Amino acid sequence: VLLQASGGGLVQAGGSLTLSCEASGRGFNGYASGWFRQAPGKEREFVSAITWRGSSIRYRDSVKGRFTVSRDNTKNTMYLQMNSLEPEDTAVYYCAADNDPRLLRPRYWGQGTLVTVSS
Question: What is the pLDDT of residues 67-107, one digit of tens each?
């Protein structure tokens, strides 16, 4: 599974961005997928996850109510709609996939896309 994240950029606080993660090769292959992020000088952290059929969705507390994860398996693409962005959301965002829906140690990773939120 090859993952390609895109959609990052520079946005002012309060603005919105939508990230995309396209899976090539065998597509998502029935795997759960999700988003992680790594801010400068910090460890990578979980942001959101969605199961293959979308029946289970999780978010880290700090993005609940602002971020929405979704997927279109016909397009082999997962999305992260980010609203009300805050400077603390600045990070490189990575998409990941694995057959373990907990995504504790995802096997597949995208290359990351940078999101910068200015105050």
Answer: 999 999 999 999 999 999 999 999 999 999 999 999 999 99
Sort 73 into a burial class: Cβ within 10 Å, 0-12 / 13-18 / 19+: middle
Give me the residue label for tokens 């520079």. 10
Of 82, 70, 81, 60, the residue nearest 28 (C-alpha): 70
User: Which secondary structure element, helix H or strand E, spans residue 70, and what is its range?
Assistant: strand 67-72
State both tokens at 23. 């899976």
The residue with tokens 């373990």 is 100
Contact 94, 38 (CB under 8 A): yes
Residue 73's closest CA among 118, 31, 109, 119?
31
